[in-house]
Amino acid sequence: MNSEFLSTIAIIALFAPLAGFVSTLLLKKWTKNAHYAEMFFIGVNVVAAGTLLVMTAGDLHTLHIISSFNWIQFPGITFELGFQFDSLSIILLFGVALISFLVHTFSLQYMHGDKRYSRYFAYLGIFTFSMNGIVITNNLLMMYIFWELVGLSSYLLIGFWFEKTSASDAAKKAFIANRFGDFGMLAGILLVFVTFGTFSFDGIKEGLLSGILPFNSGFWLSVMGVLLFCGAIGKSAQFPLHVWLPDAMEGPTPVSALIHAATMVAAGVYMVIKIYFLLSADALLVIAIIGALSALIPATIAFTQYDIKKVLAYSTLSQLGLMVMAIGLGAFGNAFFHLMTHAFFKAGLFLAAGSVIYGMHHEQDIRHMGGLKKYMPKTFLAFAIYTLAISGVPLTSGFMSKDAILNATMIYGSLTGNWIFAVVGFGVTFLTAFYMFRLLFRVFIKGNITGVEHHISHGHKVHESPNVMVVPLLVLAALSLFPFFSFNPLSGENGWLMKGMNFASSAVPDGLRYTFMALAGTSVTGYTESYFEASHHYHYIAMALSLLCALGGFGLAYTVYFKEKVNTETYKAKFRPVYTFLYNKWYFDELYEVIIVKFTLLTSRVLFWFDATVVDGLVNLTAFLTRKVSDLGGLFDKYVVDGFVNFTAMFTGLIGLFMRKLQTGKIQTYVAFIVVSIVLLFFFYARQ
Amino acid sequence: MTYYSLVFWLFALITVGSAFIVVMSKNLIYSVFSLLLTFFGVAGLYVLLSADFIAIVQLIVYVGGILIVLIFGVMLTGSVLTEGLKTNVTNMLLGSVATGALAGLLILLFTNNNLYPNTQVLTPVPLKDISRLFIVDYLVLFELLGVLLLAALIGAASIGRKEKV
Amino acid sequence: MTEITLYHFLVISSLLFSLGLYAMITRRNSILILMGVELMLNAANINFVAFSHFGNFGASGHLSALVIIVLAAAEAAIALAIVLNIYRTFNTVNADEADKLKE
């Protein structure tokens, strides 16, 4: 494959959205239709990314082309910028472009009439540009640059309606939470550079294979992996920094679909997959635990929420947690597979939610929705397909990828004897099916039908969205079905995506990696034979169990929300403490507040009590004496102290008068002072 | 005393002397034309440093471009007819002290260090080398310079034009 | 008289630099300040070329000198546009009279 040709196309794909950003911003002064520039360039992006995929489709599983140039050169140190073409980057590049294009199309109608319409599209452009940069890069430095760009564009888009206090607060929260993670990632990148002298993935891999370890210790290798993973904790909203993602729903709904469901939050997972080869077993275990927590906690929160977008946000958190857990269990290919399928159906879910919100005139509370199937049949159809996909029902893409992850948890359990992750995985599957069908039933089929009819009788029309919004929904729904990923609906492993993937090959030395992972170069597949034996053994068991869990979740939701046999209120009352705990999102926001705000308040209250009883008593006692003394003191004050104060004031005034002369506002005087200071500084330091 | 040093001292004298006039002259026109001489002197120094190409560029850009622009500036802003282009000075004491100190410091630094005591006449740098550096190794820089010039052009036009009232 | 070495060039450039700085500090006319800046840039250029010549660095010093000449050209154009603007606003080109910053 001609690498120069590939690079040219990649450059087109990378920079097209940036061109869209710039041209939209420039044009919006003159024309109201500036956003068509962005639409054009995002189209270019899709075509270029598609060309890349088609050109390389034949040898995707062996593809590994680096194309880089020197950016900054110092003696001994070179900073590179460059592209890495492999199956991961090319597939995700196309996925991002496609979803971005669909979201753009959807937004044409959804955002219509917004007073910052063109700017919105420009922001989408710069976001897509930065995401492309993360995907296509061959080194950590460039990835970090684009990483921050993504953070910036996410900030801009969450706070797009910055007149709302909640939106601007959410934007700040997201940005700050991300900074925490990015700080760890930067530390990790610096550690990488200090150790290996390079930022490029290949360079790090070579270094590791030749036996270089940070500070010559396996412990520090794990630290390095965990530090880099911190970036993913922030960006992919993993526990404990997950609190920003639900708040980020303050942004426009298509933004939630693009950034907070399909692409940006997947960037963290993608990054961990990219640096997979340097993760030691300890680091992977940490990742798996964090992933399991992030999968489980939001899943329990999701079914207590009433905001349609919040439910989806928590479900995103939970699915991201599953992917991260799968990485931690050594199944990076399965994680990537789920990342791709999830990107499509979750973006679809958000867009469908956007369509509902649009049809209901910006109503987001599901308690006010019900029976919408009648009014928005196409949206319902799409939403139902996505729900089936995310719940892991056969014939959908989600079934294959989720099954692959669950299979990996069982393999891990059988090989290490640690089954807790498998339990978490199946539990999450159950919960996912439950809260997703709850959403489906409450919004589209049963729910508050009378309320909606009441709404309509008052002249508010509830209507299906226009075609420009429905078509992206249907496209995404089609992409959530199995044939796009594998022709065998029961096994994703034989699909083109899994077949086309470079399998994991860890570069971590013996004893530091999982026993079932082979060292790079010793095995084509990256795993030992025992892994595959276990894989075959548990394939159908995992499938059956996952189906069972999904069915269980569906059945529960069916009884409760379709048949309405169970009165949810009685159960709410019965389990009031648990319910409140979940409804309030495990009190994470409050916890963070307690640590910072309440603790201070409590301390001050204790001190106040001490003040009021002990100190005040003493004070009152002494007050009398003091008054007598102060009469004397008054005389002293009047003549001695006041005199001193007046003198000080006068002195300060004099200095001020003098200093004021220096602040002339004249540049030339300033230049002269600068020169004099430089000379003085030089003599000062030269003496030492 | 070789011809080389003779020529050097000649150009050094031209450069520093005319620069002195630029700075000290009360008449703006004198300053501008002394600046022309300074640029010539510097170009001569470049030739002595076997940098022929730089010398030529110096003449073309500075004398042909920048100096003309400066003269335009003088003509457009000075009230040529009324004040006769006299300009006065400010911060005399502060300026003399600051620059005197800096000059002393720089000369002290440069002469007290043992930097490249190489006096042999080296081969002149061929133009080809400079071109190669520009077109191959520092291509991005080269193109950025082009962009910069364009931006400066547009910026200057935009700043300098009359505001629409 | 001795043979010409690197130091001679460096001293010339130091003098040129200081003269430019002197012009920047003491002259009131902003065009003269500009000329001072040009003198300083020339001084820096002499240093680059001189080091390149005596240190035998090949063409890289020349490259820097060329870059500086380009920058000087851009700077002169912009600065003169600014001076013209100042002239239009304050009706003077004297830098010390344009001290709005103080207020």
User: Reading side by side through the largest sheet of chain A, how are the strands ordered?
Assistant: 1-2
As residue ranges, the low-confidence spans of chain C are none
Annotated CATH topology of chain C: Helix Hairpins
- The assigned CATH architecture of chain C is Orthogonal Bundle
Beta-strand content estimate of chain C: under 5%
DSSP helix fraction of chain A: over 70%
Shape of chain C: elongated
Helix content of chain C: over 70%
First and last CA, distance of chain A: 61 Å
SSE ordering of chain A: HHEEHHHHHHHHHHHHHHHHHHHHHHH
CATH first level of chain C: which class? Mainly Alpha
Unreliable residue runs of chain A: none
Distance between the termini of chain C: 56 Å
What's the assembly state of these chains?
heterotrimer
Structural class of chain C: mainly alpha
**Helix/strand/pairing class of chain A, anyone?**
mainly alpha
Helix and strand arrangement:
The complex is a heterotrimer of chains A (688), B (165) and C (103).
Chain A: H1 3-27, H2 35-56, E1 64-74, E2 77-86, H3 87-110, H4 117-136, H5 140-158, H6 165-196, H7 201-209, H8 218-235, H9 244-247, H10 253-262, H11 264-274, H12 281-302, H13 308-328, H14 332-359, H15 377-391, H16 397-416, H17 420-445, H18 449-457, H19 467-479, H20 496-499, H21 529-562, H22 568-574, H23 576-583, H24 588-662, H25 667-686
Antiparallel strand pairs in A: 1-2
Chain B: H1 3-24, H2 28-48, H3 52-77, H4 80-83, H5 92-112, H6 127-137, H7 139-160
Helix pairs in contact in B: 1-2, 2-3, 6-7
Chain C: H1 6-26, H2 30-54, H3 60-90
Helix pairs in contact in C: 1-2, 2-3
Brief synopsis:
Chain B is an all-alpha fold. Helices cover 77% and strands 0% of the residues of chain B.
Task: Characterize the structure shown.
The complex is a heterotrimer of chains A (688), B (165) and C (103). Chain A is mainly alpha-helical and 688 residues long. In chain A, 72% of the residues lie in helices and 3% in strands. In chain A, α2 runs antiparallel to α3. The longest helix of chain A has 75 residues, at 588-662. Chain B has 165 residues and is an all-alpha fold. Chain B folds into two domains: 3-122, Four Helix Bundle (Hemerythrin (Met), subunit A) (Up-down Bundle), CATH 1.20.120.1200; 125-165. With 103 residues, chain C is mainly α. Chain C is built from three helices and no strands. The relative contact order of chain C is 0.13. Chains A and C meet through α25 of A and α1 of C.
